[in-house]
Amino acid sequence: ASTQSTWGFFLFTDFIPMRPTRWRAANESDELAAHALGDIAQFSGATHRSLQWDSPLLERLPPPGPSDWRACHPDDGNQTMLSHNRNQFKATVHGSHRTLVIVLFDETPPSLPVDGLSLCVSTFIQLPVEIVRPPSSPSAAAASTSTPAAVPKVPAKAKATPKAVAPSSLPPVQSRINPDTGRPQFYSGSVMAWYSAFLKSTTMKEVARRLLVSMVLCSTDLTPDDSHNFVFGISNITEGIGVQSYARLDPTFFRGAPNPQLLYLRTVRVLCHELTHLFGIKHCAFRRCLMNGANHEEEMDAQPLHLCPLCLRKLLAVHPTFDVAKQAVDMLHLCETMHFERDALWWAERARELQVPVV
Hints:
- This protein is of the alpha/beta class.
- It has helices at 23-28, 30-37, 45-50, 69-72, 81-86, 114-125, 188-199, 205-208, 260-277, 297-302, 309-318, 324-338, 341-353, and strands at 99-104, 129-133, 163-164, 175-177, 184-187, 211-218, 221-223, 233-236, 241-245.
- A hairpin with a 6-residue loop joins strand 4 (175-177) and strand 5.
- The longest helix has 18 residues, at 260-277.
- The termini are far apart.
C-alpha cells in the first residue's frame, strides 16, 4: 500500500523555508525553535509559561521510520510564526463569526456520539460547535462496523441536537473503488464541492451568519485523487472547509478487534487536528504535538491532544479570547470524563506547570 496518506493534506502553500529545512533541525535545535516562536514578551502569567520550549512536558520526536510522515515529507513541519502571520487565508475569530460547524455527511455509529464530539472540539478550541445533519446526504457502501460497547459517557449538559436541513439541488459526490482494499472511497474535493453548494443553499443562511470554519465527517474512506491511497482527513484553508473520514480510524477496518474507545479518541484527535489546520497552522516537527503529520495508525496514535508552544502561539494569534489557563483545566476534566488516560495525565501536569488551580 502507498504511504501517500495524511490527516492534513494541506492545499494552501505559504511556507518560508528555514535554515536548514529538515525535520531534524526543527526537532533538535533549540535555537531554531526559539527563532520560529519569535518574541513572546507581550504575554504574561499562564500564557507566557505555556510558550516555553524548556518545559519538561514537551517531548522531542524520535527519528522517523522509512514510512513515517517526516521521512516522506522531510521539508514539512517547519512553519514559523512569521510565515503563519503572512498567511492571508487563515481563519480568524472575529465578530459573530466564531462557530465551528461539523457536518454529519452520513449516519454516525453509536460509538461516536455527536454530542461528545461537539464537547471535545469546543473544549479544545474554545469556540461553540454546531452539528448539522443534511437529511439526504450521498452514501457509499463502506460504513463503520464498530460496536456500541464502552462508549464514552458524555455529561448531560453537553447534549447537542443535530439540525436537520433540507438542501436544494446538490452536485453528486464522485467516488472510486480503492485498488488495495476493494472498498469505496469518496474523492475529498468532490465532498468539498458538495458541501460548498450545500452551504449556499437557503436553508444554511442562518448558520452561515455565525460560521467560522466547517468540517465534514463521513464514514466512507477518502482519497484526494488517484495518485493517493487514502487520507484520514484533508483541509482547504482558502475555503475554510475540511473533510474527515473515520473509516480507517476504526480498528475493524483491517479486521482488528472492535475498540470503540480507540475509535472515539482517534476521531476527536483528527477532528481537532484538521480544524486547527483551518486556522493556518501547518504540520509541526518541532516537538510531539497534535499537529504532527501522520502516515499511518501508529503515528496517529502517538499524537497527543495538545499543541506545542509554537502551534499554540499561532492559535492565540487568530483567537483573541483564547484562555490558556481555562483550556488546561477544562481539558483535564474532559479527558478524565472521556477516559483519555494518557492525555488526562498530561493535562494534570500542565495545570500544575501553569500554576492553575484545578477545581
